[in-house]
Design goal:
single chain, about 280 residues, alpha/beta, eight-stranded mixed β-sheet, 10 helices, about 35% helix
Length: about 280
């Protein structure tokens, strides 16, 4: 059977992508951000996963206020980088995995999750920045990717509890797929930040540190956090962190923390990153 062996969380700040694309990752401002992912790049190169199941949010590239799916699963053979207003990022086209994606879609829908199936969409920085942070600048991404776009832009987003349980359902689906694929699940977005209004630039280091601790040791408690607490404690865009709970739900209850990184600032966002392995099944 296929298996999920590890989970990765990563912020997906668009300015990080711009720094990479414009060859500025060695600048004094950006160097500390990229230094925090050096160990991560080596870890994933050693692990050699076959598939990345990447949970992210679209930023009005594939969807708009005309169509707002809560959970949209990409089942296409490929996903091109989106033009977000200044041209597509100069990164490789993302290779999908239709066979596994359609299997997961069927399993999730029969497991009573309402999943939107998407057979054509471009993917924006929410997906490509985490890939760049983990894999660098290859000519082609070394893994197939199954994207899951989650609405955390237009109210109401899904609850943390719904996301956590969706992660568990994704794991069940993956383990029913007849292959030997080694899967790593990414939960992206966050950490604390607010992009508009009187609190623009808001960052809460204490909340972020507590969230990083609890995503490891108390995901069930985190899953009960209401939207208003994310808004108050992590800023209006901090609700993106519910997507981390999808990742966490797909892992064992008891996990091994491999690496943790936190940095302020990257643009106007706190960057958070953690790698978790299942204690069984993550052998190299």
């Amino acid at each position: 059977m296929a298996r999920i062996v590890a989970g990765v969380t990563s912020s997906h700040v668009p300015a990080i992508g711009a720094a990479i694309d414009n060859k500025r990752s060695g600048d004094a401002y950006w160097q500390p951000v990229f230094a925090g992912f050096e160990r991560s790049k080596q870890w994933i190169a050693d692990l050699k996963p076959d598939v990345i199941f990447l949970v992210y949010n679209d930023h009005a590239s594939a969807f708009s206020l005309e169509v707002i799916p809560t959970f949209a699963l990409g089942c296409a053979a490929e996903f091109k980088p989106a033009d977000e207003g200044w041209g597509p990022r100069p990164v490789p086209t993302v290779e999908g995995y239709p066979q596994m994606a359609w299997h997961i879609a069927q399993s999730l829908i029969l497991d009573e999750f309402d999943i939107t199936i998407v057979n054509q969409m471009d993917v924006d920085h929410g997906l490509t920045v985490p890939l760049s942070l983990m894999f660098g600048e290859p000519d082609a991404w070394p893994v197939r990717v199954i994207p899951l776009a989650v609405n955390v832009v237009q109210y109401p987003p899904p609850t943390g509890n719904r996301c956590y349980n969706l992660g568990k359902a994704i794991r069940r689906a993956v383990e029913l797929f007849d292959s030997n694929d080694k899967v790593v699940i990414f939960g992206t977005g966050g950490m604390s930040h607010q992009l508009q209004g009187p609190r623009a630039g808001f960052i809460n280091k204490e909340f972020d540190a507590d969230f990083l601790n609890r995503i490891v040791t108390d995901p069930v408690g985190l899953s009960r956090m209401p939207h208003v607490e994310y808004l108050r404690e992590a800023g209006s865009e901090g609700v993106e962190m519910v997507m981390w709970l999808i990742m966490r739900g797909a892992l064992d209850d008891d996990v091994r923390e491999v690496h943790r990184f936190y940095h302020v600032p990257a643009s106007n966002t706190a960057v958070g990153h953690i790698i978790l392995e299942n204690k069984v099944g993550a052998a190299r």
